[in-house]
Amino acid sequence: MATISKFEELEVWQLARELANEIFELFNTSEALSKDFKLKDQINGSSGSVMDNIAEGFERGGRNEFINFLTYSKGSAGEVKSQLYRALDRKYITQEQFERLYEKADIIGKKTGSFISYLNSTEHKGTKFKNRKK
Asked: How many domains does the chain have?
């Protein structure tokens, strides 16, 4: 019997999880960011959405739905990058923190885009359609 992979095994999900955790750690190191409740909630939410959308799309079991959710994830990675600029401009984070987290979000976005391209080129429709008749 073939082993069915899990979303936790996807490199892009693992990187997204790391990003969400690193963003969360910012709140412990930046008192000013932790007090800017709107930005804090936005960056925490968008970094979580990166990993959550990968997981949700995967669990739906269909290629097209997965691709759709991967596009949401890619968009959320872009949101994180924009919010990091706001945090930097407001001097909530250092240039070093910005560059490290921006690069991670950028890599996730690029890997997600590559994954979308791969899924668009494959004939596999997903486990959702495995036992369906045409």
From this structure: 1
